[in-house]
Each structure stands twice: as structure tokens, then as C-alpha cells.
Amino acid sequence: MYSECIECQKIGISCDGPNFFAMSTPELLAWCKARKAYLRASNAQLAEKSGMPKGTIDRLFAGEHVDFRYETIRPLLKALTGGAWAGNPCAAIQEDEALQKKVQELEAELARRDESIRHYKENYDDMTKLVANTNKRHEEQLKFLRGEIKRKNKAVTTLTVLAVLALLYIIVTLIIDLADPSRGYYWLESLLHLPQSIIEQTGHIM
Fold first, then answer.
1. Which of 27, 59, 127, 177 has the smallest number of CB atoms closer than 10 Å to its CB?
2. CA 206 to CA 30: how far, in whole Å?
């Protein structure tokens, strides 16, 4: 992946080297082995330059340390690049900065979109609650009005039936009176249960 940096003569002079931060653990070990072979350096020489224990370097190149932190191998990278290496490669710094800037812009855009979605969702939830409450009030009002109409219709029906019955009663008593005038005010006598003498007197007065 970074084979062009293996034989680079500028590493440690005018260029820091490849972008080690972007490499995986196997890639870092592969680069170190290739660079070591190119320099024809021994593990003891690298231990002296890096300050790392020779046993640690032996285990790294033997593949025994498969999982390690970046800071563990950093001194070895420094020794392999000539001693002046500090971080990202000189050529890749600008690329990394541009990439980080692009990532930051995308993250900011995603944050704005998330905020917009949250805002729309809150408004939607509020509108949904408002519509639900309005529908509930309308249903309650409609139920009340239907009950009022039902009660009024029942009262009107009851009054109508009573009026018809009263009218029929009056008509029947009048027919009886016409058929037998001696029994005047028959319907009044039946209704009030008054003695016939009082009713006759009332009839004479009227």
C-alpha cells in the first residue's frame, strides 16, 4: 500500500513518511518489516535507536504482538524513518485536513438535518394532538346534542300522545252528551268523581 515510501531517501529529512495513522495493524507491521529489510537493520540496532526493548521488537516482527496500540510501535516507526518523524506525512497532511474539513461539514449538515427532522416531528406531534383533542371535543358536543335532540323528541312525542288522548276523551264524552242530554257533563263527572246533583246544579248555573 505504501511501497513507494519503503526506499524513500527523504523520510526523516524533508518528509515524515507515509500516513501511519491511516494504516491498520497488519499494514504497520508489513511496512516496518519492508523498511527494516531495505535498511538492512537488525533488531538490536532498531532497539538502540528506538529505545524499545529488543525482546519487544523481536516479538513484533515475529508476529506475536498481533494487537497493540499505536503508541507502542511509534518509537520503532521513528527509528525506521530517521528520527524526526512526528505524525502525519508531509504530503498527506493537507489531504487529511481537507478530508477532516469535509467530514466536519458533512457532520454539521447531518446535525442540521437531524434538528430539522426533530423540529418537524415535534410540530407534527403537536398538530396530531391538537387535531385529536379537537375531534374529541366535537364528538362530545355531537353526543350531547344528539342526547338533547333525543330528549326533546321524546318530550314532544309524549305531549303529542297526551294531547291526542285528551282530545279523544273530550270527543267521546261530547258524543255521549249528545246521545243522552240528561247526562250533561258526563265527562266532568267521570273526571272529578263529583255527585250528579252538584254537576246538575253547575249545569243549570252555566
1. 127
2. 135
